[in-house]
Amino acid sequence: MERTEALARLGISHPVLQAPMAGVSTPALAAAVSNAGGLGALGLGACDVQEARAMIHALRARTQAPFNVNFFAHRPPVPDPAREAAWCDALRPYFAQFGAAPPVRLRRLYRSFAEDPQMLAMVLEEKPAVVSLHFGLPPAPVIAALKAAGIVLLASATSLAEARQIAAAGIDMIVAQGIEAGGHRGVFAPERADEGLGTLALTRLCVRHCDVPVIAAGGIMDGAGIGAALRLGAVAAQLGTAFIGCPESAADPAYRAALEAVREGGAACEPPAFEPPACETGTAHTVLTDLISGRPARVLANRFSDLARPLAGQRPAAYPLAYDAGKALHAAASARGVSGFGAYWAGQGAPLARALPAATLVARLLQELRAAPA
């Protein structure tokens, strides 16, 4: 499928997709991107049916343009009380720093779209133009129902094997998520070794070996990056970290401050509040960690990610159970005025971030794309 045809299927004028970013994307952000000719998106994986429907309605009140809604299609966690208790015990000293205790029992915060018929029914009623999937694929009947409703389907791949599964399942387009990308790795089976492919290599592999359009994602922050993805054969680029600093995003002040610090060449975190120290001078500005949620994700280096050293060898609870403990620790620290324990997801391109209104940013990206080498 040619790029022009692929963009027409998505209903957009420009090869720019805003990443869904659950907890960061908002109806205002998605609408601004869609109204500017790109594809805005809502990350609904952390929502229940009522919340998801309300966000879709709020977005539709702001735009008549197509948009994407994203869901998590992870395998439900297998209960393991011993593992979960051990993880809470490992975090206990850090909760104690803030006069708190870890949860007595870890809750399963997010239900997988692969096992949520109520969410599927809502999507079929609302019929968003595009639905994207992360962490895997739902059963074939779910995919068939979405396609029968005329919805364009996207799914994230971190390897060629996953991309081939996506194509074989009848998904319309592949989002090639390179290791540079912020947020959760979209790996289907996190217990297996992650190939860690970069955006350049993964995009080219998917274009070469899959017969469906490929959207490049990971580390793309400006028009030159979009142009590079297009030259590799991608039909569009998906940008997430680039949009975090937009005033329309839901990033909190501490998140924005950490991103700004990285942009200016500083550390992403504050001085340590406890031993061992949280962030040391010279550490990478982003790191991959599974401590926050139980799944590998790229985050601005902070106090939570730095616990990888004292907690080395301690296996986190499974996703999303570990996220219950992670959110509780963040809340306990925040209540004492301490930041650095939030899920401040960001990609390796974070130093290139710009705090611009979303529509202005899209216009800037397109201007840079036109100026990029052919």
From TrEMBL:
Pfam families: NMO (PF03060). Its cofactor is FMN. The keyword Flavoprotein applies. The keyword Flavoprotein applies. It catalyses: 3 propionate 3-nitronate + 3 O2 + H2O = 3 3-oxopropanoate + 2 nitrate + nitrite + H2O2 + 3 H(+). Keywords: Detoxification, Flavoprotein, FMN, Monooxygenase, Oxidoreductase, Plasmid. GO terms for molecular function: monooxygenase activity. It comes from the Bacteria. SUPFAM superfamilies: Inosine monophosphate dehydrogenase (IMPDH) (SSF51412). PANTHER family: NITRONATE MONOOXYGENASE-RELATED. Belongs to the nitronate monooxygenase family. NMO class I subfamily. This is Propionate 3-nitronate monooxygenase. It comes from Thioclava litoralis.
